[in-house]
Automatic annotation (TrEMBL):
Location of region: Disordered: 1-25
GO terms assigned for molecular function: dihydrolipoyl dehydrogenase (NADH) activity; flavin adenine dinucleotide binding
Recorded family membership: Belongs to the class-I pyridine nucleotide-disulfide oxidoreductase family.
Cofactor note: Binds 1 FAD per subunit.
Names of required cofactors: FAD
Domain FAD/NAD(P)-binding: from-to ranges: 27-347
Organism for this UniProt entry: Subtercola boreus
Binding annotation for NAD(+): 203-210, 291
This protein's name: Pyridine nucleotide-disulfide oxidoreductase
Domain Pyridine nucleotide-disulphide oxidoreductase dimerisation: 386-492
Pfam family, one: Pyr_redox_2
Membrane-spanning ranges: none
Keyword NAD in annotation: yes
Length: 506
């Protein structure tokens, strides 16, 4: 399932390429965690000619493939297609029944390959990477022990680098009774084989908003408890539009309300939440979607002078920043993906993986480094050019800085907004199209700092904005990027027109 399924040989003259893993095996590079990110680091290192081991405790493919991106999108897609068809006369009349929940769950199961990772393990082998199954723990500088499912322990040593790509897990807030109430996390929400009649969701972030959309569509009576507005890291109108849509789907969205205690009646009984507005909520399942913690609790970090349970702070080449920790001397410890807390997104982690894999190869082989901003060996885009699509209905697609974030960062900005329903492409897409776009412009440099699109089918519009932000394309040049008629991308032209054209600067 990895995006870059090319094969490679470990041909470096200084490399050893073991056939099997045995006590004391040495590799050039060891990657801990075969999620989407770890797979890509290992692939780049192997393609660069380094002998590479990939250690995985659960399923090759990680969270994204089995319990996050892919199953969540599978749960959401059928409802989105159905609603889209209902907005187009001719198609609408052809809909003769309700959503088929069992078929949706079956398609989700197929999407996650029934929780089997053989095809991904096959890809790893084909890429010339040695897969080591088991739980890795540091035992010292450049050394690890790996404990497999049978309890056998083997030792691995890295010649050049170890990369921690162990991802993150759901955070459970410290609310009395919560941990003992068998709450759902994103894992249960994305893998459930049935739809609870009543589902409460704690947290109005991305997981909360997406799962509220999915479960409300699939028949649950959903109640969302959100301390702040929904999707509070986005432009405010995004969360407001998603909230309105959820209410239309029959969900109850309680803003500014938190649970103070949680309890469950016996095993598998109803869950009761007491809320800080004085009310009580009784549901069949409670999904906790209140953020993430790093998978660094049982990693032996103490043996190399780092703290267990901490996020691993890295520089732009993805090296764990050493501070005054002598154990990290020699540029050998890297962290990529969720575990470094830079941008908890698969695509951004894979971007880091490409930079990290390549810089490890360059450092190992003494090749020139390209570590200035936007160089080949750095993850510059993590700072101010991160794209993200939230697959609610309407979708929220954004890149770069929001107005609030840009002002906080010290930019002088001018922002323009536009109602996407006014472009011709929107009226073709759906009757009664509802959507909004916003562009944040750096007034000084006349470049786009951030763009947000909210509406049906805006996800694939996003890359145009990402190119504009990353390329720092001047506004006067963007006028020459002509959007095709009649597509949703004409919103670009409208945003520019709303901003105004300065002919003197051309
Ligand atoms: C519900 C949900 C939906 C999401 N949807 C999207 C989306 O649509 N798009 C998007 O871009 N992002 C999405 N994300 C975020 C995305 O899932 C993560 O950013 C991504 O999975 C991070 O990849 P990773 O490789 O860093 O970590 P992971 O995918 O978590 O992989 C880490 C791997 O390391 C293994 N591991 C951990 N510790 C050890 C150890 N000690 N020894 C050996 N192996 C170990 C784990 O078993 C795991 O396989 C979603 C997240 C959630 C929760
Ligand atoms: N489509 C996507 O790209 C996608 C989808 C799902 C998840 N993800 C990624 O996964 C990560 C985790 O998502 P998430 O939704 O768990 O985290 P999040 O940080 O996006 O949202 C968590 C929300 O929970 C709230 N919260 C925290 N404690 C609370 C409490 N005690 N009671 C009520 N609310 C509380 C926070 O204020 C916040 O709004 C995100 O960083 C996201 O980028 C991405």
């Amino acid at each position: 399932m990895s995006s870059s399924a090319s094969s490679s040989e470990s041909t470096s003259s200084e490399s050893t390429s073991p056939e099997t893993t045995s006590p004391g095996t040495t590799f050039d590079v060891i990657v801990i965690g075969a999620g989407a990110v770890g797979e890509n680091v290992a692939d780049r290192a192997a393609q660069g000619g380094l002998s590479t081991a990939l250690v995985e405790a659960e399923l090759v493919g990680g969270e994204c493939s089995y319990w996050a991106c892919m199953p969540s999108k599978a749960l959401l897609r059928s409802g989105a297609v159905l609603r889209a068809a209902k907005k187009v006369p001719g198609a609408r009349e052809a809909i003769t029944g309700e959503i088929d929940v069992q078929a949706v769950l079956a398609r989700r199961n197929k999407t996650v390959n029934d929780y089997q990772d053989d095809s991904q393990a096959e890809w790893v082998a084909g890429a010339g990477i040695t897969l080591v199954r088991g739980h890795a723990r540091f035992t010292g500088v450049k050394t690890l022990s790996v404990t497999d499912a049978q309890g056998n322990v083997s030792q691995l040593t890295a010649r050049h680098a170890i990369v921690v790509s162990t991802g993150s897990a759901a955070l459970l807030p410290d609310i009395p009774g919560l941990a003992d109430s068998a709450p759902w996390t994103s894992r249960e929400a994305t893998s459930s084989q049935s739809i609870p009649a009543r589902l409460a969701i704690m947290g109005g972030g991305v997981v909360g908003a997406e799962m509220a959309t999915a479960y409300a569509t699939l028949g649950s009576k959903v109640t969302v408890l959100s301390r702040s507005g929904l999707l509070s890291n986005q432009e405010p109108f995004a969360g407001e539009m998603v909230r309105d849509a959820l209410v239309e789907l029959g969900a109850d969205v309680k803003i500014g309300v938190s649970a103070t205690t949680v309890s469950r009646d016996g095993s598998g009984g109803a869950v009761t939440l007491t809320l800080d507005d004085g009310s009580e909520l009784v549901v069949d399942e409670l999904l906790v979607a209140t953020g993430r913690v790093p998978n660094t609790g049982d990693l032996g970090l103490e043996t190399i002078g780092l703290e267990a349970h901490s996020w691993l702070e890295v520089d732009d080449t993805l090296l764990v920043t050493p501070g005054d920790n002598g154990a990290l001397d020699g540029d050998w410890l890297y962290a990529t993906g969720d575990v470094n807390h830079r941008a908890l997104l698969t695509h951004q982690g894979k971007y880091q993986a490409r930079a990290a894999g390549d810089v490890i190869v360059a450092r190992a082989l003494g090749k020139p480094l390209s570590t200035g901003p936007w160089g080949a060996h750095v993850a510059t885009a993590d700072h101010e050019a991160v794209p993200q699509v939230t697959f609610t209905d309407p979708e929220v697609a954004s890149v770069g800085l929001t107005e609030a974030a840009a002002k906080k960062a010290g930019y002088t900005v001018k922002c323009v907004e536009y109602d996407i329903s006014w472009v011709a492409g929107a009226s073709v897409t759906a009757d009664g199209y509802s959507g909004r776009a916003k562009m944040v412009v750096d007034e000084k440099r006349q470049v786009v700092l951030g763009v947000t699109f909210v509406g049906q089918d805006v996800a694939d519009l996003l890359h145009s904005a990402t190119v504009a932000v990353v390329g720092e394309v001047p506004l006067n040049r963007l006028w020459h990027a002509v959007p095709s008629y009649p597509t949703l991308s004409e919103v670009w032209l409208r945003l520019l027109e709303t901003y105004g054209r300065d002919a003197s600067s051309h």
